[in-house]
Amino acid sequence: MNKLVRILRQLFYPHAHTLDSSGISFSPKFWLLIVFTGIGAGLGADFLMFLLSMVQHLSYHYAHGYFQVAAEHVSGLHRLGVLISAGVLATFAVWLLRKLSHGANSDVVHTIWFQSGSVNFWHTIAQAILSMTIVGMGASLGREGAPKQVGMAIASLLSRWGRLSSTETRFLAACGAGAGMGAVYNVPLGGALFALEVLLGSVTLPLLLPAITTALIATAVSWITLPDQPTYTLPIYTFHIGELYWSLLFGPLAGVMSVLFVRLIIWADLHKPQSGWFMWAPLLMFTLLGILSIPYPQLLGNGKDVTEFAFNSQLPLLLMLTLVVLKPLVTAGCLGSGAPGGLFTPSITYGAVLGGSMGDLWSLIWPGAAIGSYAVIGAGALLAATMQAPLAAIVLLLELTANTMGIMIPVLLAIVSAVFTARLLDKRSIYSGPAGIEPFIEQVSTHPVHTAFDDLITPSFQNIVPISASYSHLVKLMSTDDPPHNFYVVDHSGQLAGMIFSKNLRTADLLTRTLNVAAADDLKTPITAIRSDQSRKEVIDLLDQPYFSEMPVIDCVSKRYIGVVRSSSIICK
């Protein structure tokens, strides 16, 4: 009883006591925004799923049952016509949104880490509606992308209204995105863990309660129109010893295949069309998908029904092997064309057909286990490895199926070995892979900017960090043998955004230091930089002042970081 009283007192009087031993507390205003974010994410999920059903009905005369069956019942030319229409819609809508929003980015991971969770509300809502529409028409993308964006947009709007700090805004945006996903798939705990482990990379107890609360509220609200039942229906599978030995072999294979898939998605994301005739890429890609759907209608949509068929041992071996090749290719193609959409369900589908096909072949050597059980194990392993989030994957698999405890030992074995293998080869996930500074460094090294003081510039890249760099990453850099005295922060295009002094890390607030929610963007301070068009004398005069022993140099046109000029270099010259 006393513990309950302490919790209630801490909730409503956060400055009197703390929520836990770490000293972290959230204000009543923050909790109020958590509630409103959950309600908004749940209502958004209801609307988006209604929109999906309407689009599927108009496109394929789908009313109930399996969407895959409805798509197969229409003619191949009908499917091609729908995909061409989706391509036209996507091409025009993507161009219009980019034109009206001046290039605003509504990608969830990019928004959370590069924009501190702040996003253009109406642009994000419009992109979510477009995403759900083209998925309903057959785009090989996940439906969870739209509700994540809606939940994030609502959280961003509420954060501005509540005047939250950038760190709190980032956290609330992640909670909103996870809540939207949890509401659509009826996976509240999985949605909360997705927000923490995948989007924030920090699963700590103080963060867990707000994330779970948001997802629970969103899921409960979504029950207004959405069913309160697991996403996938499958029989009760019992443990078979053959599954155990198969998992030992399949786990590393799943890790390798997940890395190939992640790299394919990253490449497609980095080569999205930006202007000119390339903006017609959605029409071309969707037309190609429509042609492929004539013999293989299983490629249409996010793959939910294909996954359930694989879970229930209802897919032939040759078809599964074909989908192992084609499904990731068309998913990457749709994403790379610039069309918005998610990657969650396509990843599960990829894992299900890969696991099902390998299990089918394994049953020729060691029969006895149901082919569907191998598909379930494969789905869990691929999902965990592509997300680089084993805990979230395990919980999501349990909530999505509500019926996998009988084979949990081989599932866990496959997940652990798949994630371990994937991290040995490439630590990037399917969501956070493109967020980095490496492409900028390569571009600077191959396209140097010439100045009147080239001999004074040191092209130092050891102490530059992207605005998305986490607090723990910065601390790790400071703990090296030769730590930098400061960091130069650059944005996703390489433009200098500010500087972080070492004292900023030591004096960061408790929320930042304990929970690792903050990024370099929250800790930076403005800084004066030398432009590439300045004269040599101006540079020397600046560094002759006592407070400027080192200054960064930027391109006068692009504002990109070039290097640093130190007063010691001038003395040597």
Automatic annotation (TrEMBL):
Source taxon at top rank: Bacteria
Lineage of source species: Bacteria, Pseudomonadati, Pseudomonadota, Acidithiobacillia, Acidithiobacillales
Membrane topology: Multi-pass membrane protein
Keywords: Chloride, Chloride channel, Ion channel, Ion transport, Membrane, Transmembrane, Transmembrane helix, Transport
Record-linked InterPro entries: CBS_dom_sf, Cl-channel_core, ClC, ClC-type_chloride_channel
Coiled coil stretches, renumbered: none
Entry annotated with the keyword Transit peptide: no
Subcellular compartments: Membrane
Annotated transmembrane regions: 30-56, 76-98, 171-196, 203-224, 244-265, 277-296, 316-335, 371-398
Protein name, as recorded: Chloride channel protein
